[in-house]
Structure formats: C-alpha cells, structure tokens
Fold this protein.
Amino acid sequence: MDMSKETASTSFSNELEHWMTSKSAKTVAALNDLFAEKSLAIIILVLMFLPALPLPTGGVSHVFEVISMLIALQLMIGRRTIWLPKDWATREITGMKQKKVINGIVKTVRWLEKFSRPRLVSFMQSTLGLFIAGLALFAFSLAAFLSPPFSGLDTFPSIGAVVVALSLVLDDFVVLVVGILAGIGGIALIVTLGTAVFDFVHHLF
C-alpha cells in the first residue's frame, strides 16, 4: 500500500476541501459536528480567513471576529467543545461558497502541511498551550475588529489568527510561534500607521 497516498487522502486539507465543496450547510454548527475536538481551532481558522484576505467584506468580517473572540475565550478556559448562541451557530458563513475563498483556504492549509509536523504535541494539547493559543487568537481577532475601517489593516492580525488556529489543528509548536509573531507584527503595523494618521490629522487642525 502506498502510505503517502493514504496520508494525503486523510489529510486535514482534504477533509476541509470536501466539506467546503459539498452541498452541506456551511455553518459553525456543521463544522463543530464534523471536526469534533479540533472544531474550535478550525472554526476560527475558517472565520478569520475572510478578513485575512485583502478583499472588501462590507462589515461582515466584524461578525466573524466577534465569534472568533468568543471561541478564543473558550479555548483559554480549556473547553474542548464549542458553545455559541443557537442563532450564531446555525447562521450560514458568508463567503464559504465562493470559489476564490475555498481555493484560498485549501491552498494555504496545504502549503503549511508541507512544512509542518507534530512538534511538542503534549504542550500544544495542554491547558497552558491552549491558553496561550487562545489568548493570541483573542488578541489578534480583537485587533482586526478594532482596526480602522476600510483601511485593509485587519488583514495582518487576521493572518496571525489563521496561522495560530492552524498550529492547533496540526499540533505544531513551530507554526504556533510563527503565527504569534505574525499577529504581533500585524498589531504593531496597525498601531504605527494609526498613530501616523492621527498625528497627520492633528497637525491639520
């Protein structure tokens, strides 16, 4: 038996692609039912991918960021299963039927899978590991939510959130560190540019 083919057929990216291209409902509840104990990280991954794209979202990304913050808090307290208000859990995830979004998510996950492998798994699955990842996800989702509207700056902390979420799915400490650094860099960029714009406007008036 070709073990590489067997591994590829059961990879997370293939499972995710199958769900995203299927006719099943694209809701948080559906993701939770499919991926079980990994569902919290996977839901944040999917929700934060849209604001991570340099595309206009019409404000819908703010809803995703709020849900991501709530899920991140649940990670911080060690929950393995998700709790959300029923209306939020059963609401269709906007954009999940767009081919560009589907391809973007799947390609990103597959690219990281090439370089990732389980590293420090016991830490990644520990209470401390989940707390650190949850704290980072909350901070990056909040930064994306608070970024200046129509500036596109929410993209940068959102990328950090996507990578951190993937680190939990792949149980890879190195990916976690990369995601945290990317998110911190995104927050620093928002603060730097925001301060520059504020100073510019202040000098004008």
Confidence is low (pLDDT under 50) at residues 1-9. The first helix runs from residue 3 to 9. The chain has one domain: 3-204. Residues 3-204 form one domain.
